[in-house]
Amino acid sequence: PLVTSKKMFEKAYEGGYAIGAFNVNNMEIIQGITEAAKEVNAPLILQVSAGARKYAKHTYLMKLIEAALIETDLPICVHLDHGDSFELCKACIDGGFTSVMIDGSHLPFEENIALTKKVVDYAHERGVVVEGELGRLAGIEDAVNVSEEEAFFTDPDQAAEFVERTGVDSLAVAIGTSHGAYKFKGEPKLRFDILEEIQKRLPGFPIVLHGASSVIPEFVEKINKYGGQMPGAKGVPEDMLRKAASMAVCKINIDSDLRLAMTATIREHFAKDPSNFDPRKYLGPAREAIKELVKHKLVNVLGCAGKA
Ligand code: G3H
Ligand code: 13P
Ligand code: ZN
Ligand code: NA
Predict the structure, then answer these.
(1) Is 124 assigned to a binding site?
(2) Beta-ladder partners of 187
(3) Could you give the CA distance from residue 79 to residue 82 in angstroms, rounded to a whole number?
(4) Does residue 1 form part of some domain?
(5) CB-ligand 2 contact for 178 (6 Å cutoff)
(6) Which ligand number lies closest to the CA of residue 22?
(7) What span, in angstroms and rounded, lies between the C-alpha atoms of 116 and 105?
(8) Which of 59, 64, 163, 213 is deepest in the core (most CB within 10 A)?
(9) What proportion of the chain, given as a percentage, has pLDDT over 70?
């Protein structure tokens, strides 16, 4: 059934694991992810960004996810990723999403609170849950000095006040991850000390980790081998994700790894079978690669297999 993430997060917090939140924008991606979850009996969050919703259209995505619900019989939450306005959140709530993110992380604290609270009030009246964000994810490496870098991370005191005053159901935090395939120039480092402080201030409250792709070297190598150019791509080591999942982090966002699996598979196909022009012959293997990747994440990294 279509569900919110409320019970998923309660069980995940309790059990010391995390739910995988995977970005979707077409049929093969939805099938690959949901077939993997079905095989290992994992609860799922499928998330749609503003860009994905514009690309595939709201109704197509909802209907594809409805098909996946029928095929898998799993608890699946449909979530808006990085909602940037009340209007977008409202459209998704009215259109059947069970969860929305309002990302006011770029706004001054008081404005972030006001916008988030407005979305929470609308969502909660309709049985929909809300994820807020505090702290700046992107551009850690753009910081010119240590104190500026520190200011990008989530402030634990502010996190507690933010949750209290907005009534959000979960909170995305900045502890050193970033979006995309180039997360670290040097050694990967996450601020688990900050996560611990947040956890202390907000006992039992579910935390969300964005930018959590591990940028699996096998896929990057394949992309580079078959004509791609992704030198220096680097993600979050899976051991760090396991550690986060064992703590207050209950939702781990993965998009880039799906893109890499799909692109690597299709590049290999085109290089090895240049005469083929049947899309099923490369979208099929791409779907299979996504399925294997997601199974690996659910079973070996997030710890949510068998928890549906
Ligand atoms: O947070 C970013 C997600 O990977 C979605 O990316 O806006 O290109 O769909 P997108
Ligand atoms: P990645 O780019 O690391 O996959 O992060 C995805 C994400 O946070 C979506 O909100
Ligand atoms: Zn994100
Ligand atoms: Na956890």
Answers:
(1) no
(2) none
(3) 9
(4) no
(5) no
(6) 2
(7) 10
(8) 213
(9) 98
Ligand 3 centroid vs 271 CA: distance in angstroms?
32
pLDDT, tens digit, 9 for 90 and up, residues 30-64: 999 999 999 999 999 999 999 999 999 999 999 99
Q: Is residue 47 part of a domain?
A: yes
Tokens found for residue 288: 């299979």
Confidence (pLDDT) at 90:
99
Give the model confidence (pLDDT) of 181-206 as tens digits: 999 999 999 999 999 999 999 999 99
Residue-number span of the structural domain to which 78 is assigned: 6-302
51 CA distance to ligand 1 middle (Å): 7
Q: What pLDDT does 142 receive?
A: 59
- Cβ-Cβ contacts under 8 Å for 78 (sequence gap 6 or more): 2, 45, 46, 47, 48, 62, 65, 96, 97, 98, 99
169 counts as catalytic = no
In this structure, is residue 308 part of a structural domain? no
End-to-end CA distance of the chain: 11
| CA 273 to ligand 1 centroid distance, Å | 31
The domain that holds 269 is classified in CATH as 3.20.20.70
Ligand 1 touching residue 51 (CB < 6 A):
yes
Has residue 208 been placed in a domain? yes
The pLDDT confidence band at residue 273, using thresholds 50, 70 and 90, is very high
> How far is the C-alpha of 208 from the C-alpha of 21, rounded, in Å?
10
